[in-house]
Every structure is written in structure tokens, then in C-alpha cells.
Amino acid sequence: MTKYSVGDIENILFEAFPLSDALPNDRNGLFVGDRKTIVKKIAVALDQTLPMIETALAFGCNLLVTHHPPFMYAPDSFLNVSSPALSNGAVIYKAAQKGIALLNMHTNLDCAPAARNMMFEPVGLEYTAPLRPYGTGALGQLGRVQNRTKNNPTPLSAEDSGRGTPSYLSLQNGLGPLSANDGCRSPEQSGDRGYLQLGELFARYRRYFGGVAKVWGDPDRPIFTVAACSGGAGEVVNEVVAAGVDCFITGEVRHHEALYLADAGISLIELGHDNSEMPYRYILQNTLVVAGIPYCDIVVLSPSATWWHPVADARE
Fold it and tell me: Which residues of 128-151 are buried (b: 16+ CB within 10 A; e: fewer)?
């Protein structure tokens, strides 16, 4: 790929995810690199970490595009060490040393219309309204269980998939269609009942987002309406309670926020901050492909490490 510069890629992403949609005091855009540098290949990941830089370089990439920035607070040192715990500018040092540009789209992507169905479409739920309207999109979404349980996910529209062609977010995560074994009953089994039990909904999310989902609530409780917000969702808890939904699906909340939801009679499914945002990688990929970046020049990276749960895995 010789047509696009680092600055071109940044412009493409800011056109899709305007900086004006980012929350205050956020960090977005180019952190390391020269906007005039010609891009060879692009790596897309959730985080800018030392292992992700090495993996991107191994694939021949000189640009790493992520959702999360390398830091939220300015580093006080930039040292050649094995972990940002020893020098919080270690990622910046490594990227500059190795000649790989770092670019991210954070809360401007969280709030984008392209992310509207990310938490609902893969598990067969229906988007109904924004949770907190913001910019051109929203922080969080409201939705409901559809009138019939779907055995297969519905393709995203071009608008919902980051100005891209329709795509199955669930299949892009390497996961297959829903089945009865995943807590997804067929229309005949469900009787078109229009709700899912909390345990069934949990099974769908665990199947499609992977990792270790946690649930707060009665597994047999009927769920008709939901709210969702990927990543950390502490600042929208008040909106969730005001909406009066049956269940809130998010990446993570603090203990007392979970108590507030429970006191309001709202069940909770916590997917893990990282797992809830993995589909952002494919929204970024789709956006670049639609803009003309060859698909073969974009590498989607998996995290080098993530959570696992020995007790849950032992039962399985």
C-alpha cells in the first residue's frame, strides 16, 4: 500500500468519527509518528501496548490504530523498559524507536452512530433509542428483546457498520450463529414470547463476546427491555435507572454502582471492559476498507493477554 499517508488515515477516521463527538478531556488522534509517512500496512487493536507494537511490527505494519489511547494522563518519563508500570511513557518510547505510528479513536468512537448496534445486533436484540444523546450519536443505547428469537444474527446496515458494507460483527469475532445450546431458543421453543430469561440473555452475551461475563440478578427473570454501554459505564448509571429497563449490559461498573442498579430492580450483565469493546476493531477495519484501504493491508490483532476464570472453566 503506497497511496495513503498516516495523516490520510487519521483524516478518514476523524471523518467517520468526528473529534467533536469525543467526551471532554479525552485523547484521540495521532500520538506518535509523522503524518506525511506513507503507510505500509495497518494493525488494528483494542490497546496500544508493548506486545501489540511488537506484533504489529511482526506483520509488517508501520501504523497501529486502536480504540484506547496509550495513556490518559501525560507521562513523566519515556524509558526503554519492559512495562509502563516502570515508566508510563514506555509505549511512546517503543513506538518512536521502532518507527511505528500510534493512532486512536476513543470516546468519539464510543458515541458514534456506527457503534449503535454493537452491543445488540450480535445477540439478536433490537435497538430502540439512545441512552444519552451526544454529538452525532450517543453514549449508550436502549433496546428490547425482539418479538421472535433469531437463530442467526442480522447484518448491520451500512450506517451501523461504520459506513461499511453489511457485516456480521458476531461472525467477525470468530463465532458462529446462535443455537439452542447458547441459550437461544428457536421460535418454536420460545413461542414468540417476546422476552428472554436473564440466564438465556447471559448465555448469548457470553457466547458472542467471550471471556468471563458476570451476572447480577435472578437467572429466571424475564427480560423485555435493556440498556447497554460498552467499556466503563459508571457515568450513565443514572440514565439507566431513569430509563427503568429490566437489564443493563456493560463492560464494567464499580461495586456501589451495581448496588444502585440492584436497588432499582435492574439486573446486570458485566462482560469485562475489554471484551465489551473488541468489536470496535472491526468497526475501525470496516471504516478503512470502505474508504479504499485494501483489506489485505489491515491486520486485526487479538490481545496478548486477557482475563480467564479458573472456577468457571473447570465446570465446563
Answer: eebbbebbebbbbbbbbbbeebbe
d(CA 267, CA 261): 7
Fold agreement (6-107+279-300, 111-276): yes
pLDDT band with cut points at 50, 70 and 90 for residue 63: very high
Is residue 182 scored above 70 in pLDDT?
no
Rounded distance, CA 223 to CA 232, Å?
A: 22
pLDDT on residue 150: 43
C-alpha cell read off for 30: 495521532
Specify the CATH number of the domain 6-107+279-300: 3.40.1390.30
**What gap in Å lies between CA 194 and CA 121, rounded to an integer?**
16
User: Which pTM does this prediction carry?
Assistant: 0.84
According to CATH, the topology of domain 111-276 is: 3.40.1390
The answer, yes or no, to whether residue 219 has pLDDT greater than 70, is yes
Instruction: Let me know: does 98 contact 64? Beta carbons within 8 Å.
Output: no
Is 196 strand, coil or helix?
Answer: strand
Q: Residue written as cell 451501523?
A: 160
Q: What are the boundaries of each domain within the chain?
A: 6-107+279-300, 111-276
Mean pLDDT of 77-88: 92
Residue 263 to residues 32, 122, 217, Cα–Cα distance (Å): 45, 29, 11
Mind spelling out the 3-state secondary structure of 126-160? EEEEEEEEECCEEEEEEEEECCCCCCCCCCCCCCC
Q: What angle do CA 216, 220, 221 make, to 5 degrees?
A: 70
pLDDT at 235: 87
